[in-house]
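[retry 2/3] D-2-hydroxyglutarate dehydrogenase: previous attempt timed out, resubmitting with same input.
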Amino acid sequence: MIAQIAAPVELTKLYRTFLEALSAQGFKGEITPDHANCTVLATDNSIYQRLPQAALFPRDVDDIQILTRLVVQKEFRQIVITPRGGGTGTNGQSLTHGLVVDLSKHLNRIIEINVEERWVRVQAGVVKDQLNAALKPHGLFFAPELSTSNRATIGGMINTDASGQGSCTYGKTRDHVLELKSILMGGHPLNSRPLNDIELQQFSAEQGIIGEVHRCVTAIHAEHRELIDQTFPKLNRCLTGYDLAHIRDERGQVNLNNILCGSEGSLGFVVEAKLNVLPIPKHSVLINVSYASFMEALQDARALMALKPLSIETVDSKVLGLAMQDIVWHDVAEYFPHNESRPTLGINLIEFSGDDLAALDVIVNAFLAHLSSDKSVERIGHTLAKGAQAISRVYSMRKRAVGLLGNVKGEVRPQPFVEDTAVPPEHLPDFIAEFRALLDSHNLQYGMFGHVDAGVLHVRPALDMKDPIQASLVRTVSDGVAQLTHKYGGLLWGEHGKGVRSEYAPKFFGKLYPALQQLKAAFDPHNQLNPGKIATPLNSDEHLLKVDEVPMRGEYDRQIDERVWQSFESAVHCNGNGACYNFDPNDAMCPSWKATRERVHSPKGRASLIREWLRIQGNAGIDVLGVAQRARDTNAFTSLFRKLKVSLTSRNSDKDFSHQVFDAMSGCLACKSCAGQCPVKVNVPEFRSRFLELYHTRFFRPLKDYLIGSLEFTIPYFARVPWLYNALMSAKPISLFLKKYGGMVDSPLLSNISLSAALKKAKVKVATPQILSSLSDSERKRSVILVQDAFTRYFETQVVSDWIELISRIGYHIYLAPFSPNGKPLQVLGFLGAFEKTARKSSAKLSELGNFGIPLVGLDPAMTLVYRQEYSKLSADSPCPMVFLPQEWLAKIFEVGSPVINNRAPSPPPYKLMAHCTEKTNTPASTALWQPVFEKFGLKLTVVATGCCGMSGTYGHEDRNYETSKKIYGISWQPIVEQHTGNGTLLANGYSCRSQVKRFGGEQINHPLQVLLAHMKS
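[retry 2/3] D-2-hydroxyglutarate dehydrogenase: success.
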């Protein structure tokens, strides 16, 4: 039995008193000291883990003023607060042992867009891609380009002075900041912008913190101007924390924005920004050059910079190899053709852009001529990606590089702690050679990619952080790389900030470090704002954090039994890259996160909770693997008795941390988008079902679990009297009963259409070994076996009937596999013992039919993909045969001896497919096959970018999920459905999706197969 585990860390008395006072002061946002939220916010994209006392989510700027006024009161000066944005930092910038203040949840409005003057005003929690999506219709964009642009917030970009691809042309974030609104300690608002000398005198004359910070900055510049010029390297990525080199801008005006940009939340809360935006180039070309070695790619990039491209990005063979195994490769493979005899071990992505197409062509042609004539390095070949859409596809692969590096096999994985060094570009090849020698001396593997034009390279040494000996190399390698970057006139932290690596700041700044301390003291005299980062206040006893003194994830992970770790690897290998925080409403990744904006309801959040839950269970002496096995072997009566005993004897069971984990898991739609889109392949539905199995060894299941789990087994019997079933389910007393005791808001009704007529008309036979064995080879080649699923078979019989007619019309003999429960509902709900029995039985039946060489074809993507995903994990001894999706089979038969298709009907307008999220994220190549299939029928179809519909099996029917389901539908599907209401061009291939549209949109949309049939019949 699993253990009753309360939150292992209780609020200290001081923090409890502070939070009570904060609430009493009128703080309107959420105050969450629960262990679940604290656990999720204890990590970022770094190697560190710091459990905060609580998390705060301010609802508006007033909340931040209340917080910063209260925290400086004498009795609360030991309270520590740390701003947090997207949580994508790689150096622990937003991790704290105090209070996390997350500005991303509520402060995320785009306040104003001024197209004529080309500026925007936004709140700190606005995501970079969110801003650019709003700017795109105006032909504008916010330039700094990050690999994390779909989840990085503007506030986070300002606090880290983010840059990324194209920075040599467009600069860093601070180059585009016009004004900032910040809240300083004591609740004082600071509106910072470039100041002339008269304005500077006025601000400096003010009393209190506003005057103090202006006087401090002015004095530092006056006293240390020459030393600053001598100390700061002339780098594109001179990321130093407090940018003393730009206290005065190019016009000679004092600009506090340049101090706040890159300050990592250690000086104040940036709550609003006025930003410069630029016109989107009208034309772009990306040249993808392949090399036989990574060093040749580096050397060539240095020479190619002289040709003045917009940017040059370099990727090594390790990242490229991982990308080939990822969902992203489907979109970019054409740009990186495989050469067996000369494998690509390095690539350069060189971009040119401009508004004059003819002029751009001249530049590109000159560049290509250079590639042909220059023999200084050996190039394997090159391809061109033209236009924003094509270039975006290639860059999406490069953007996923950080996450992809975490998807290597085994426990030794690339770790971010020396991964953003910056040196003058002309020194980069020599620097990298020494860098590699340093790593090689410790026998470390690593992956590399970066911005060669800026002298920045991302290098991640591979370590098993659970191994104390390997973890100790963080210190050794960090010291070595810090010394190496200093030797070449660069920085250890060229792009991703200091964070925990701030300990190297005094050595780099030397005599200037006390000036940083003066700044910190002026803004934050009691060292309460993100302490230990950048600098400590002058004349204080505080010290900077050290790279090997802050708790690391590995210290907690090694507490999990190795067998458990390996068994739950899909959860525990989450590296925190945060790809699941994707802003894009029309991307399928994690609908529950998009709808709730609660990080516990994201794949990263759920993985963090499972990791922590397993750790605590192990420390309590519980063998979760043994518990799971015993649960499957225990009879129902014994299990019931045990749960009754627990409910009667457990104390404070409502405070059990397991309930917090359960709430997070219950909010998951089990759509498997994370399994397909996460670079590390974190599969929440898989470990969610395993958790539910364990959780319910101790706690009762709701009635709805049994109703849903048994549905596939009972529905064939109910289908014999559909009128009775539908009447019962529609009756108000039954509806009220199901809602109150079953947790179900509503339920789909059985179809009144009989399949018999369609079966008879198409001469469909039941697929049995006896019948199939009697077929000749030629008959088998023109045959297909349909695998039924409970939902389309009994709730959407018309779709099945149309599918049968379509197959018959294109000249194939149809055999119907006897209905057999698939088991997906059982798997989703954690009835894993029952699922395994069901799957083995179904697999055996399909294997018997599959032995005759006739294709097996399913209809619903969610159900069909179970055969090739969940079934494949059960046993290698009895693998389930391949069950094709409809378009996979159609595309295959059209390649070989295509039947004649009626094209006499006039061409209708292009159809638009809203694909099922499980299919398009787990088998994207299959989704793309709908287009050539439609072309074969003389029809046009495009796959529309959509998020999740919000139904996902029975999720949307459950009372606890109803509002979230509706909100998910409204985020992406609703606007698209409303735009196409009544024109018949919108299609959906998922049963759940069509049900959701009918439910909330009042529209009956067709399956793609129904359109093909109608075209043949016209």
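[retry 2/3] D-2-hydroxyglutarate dehydrogenase: The chain has a mean pLDDT of 90.
[retry 2/3] clearing retry counter.
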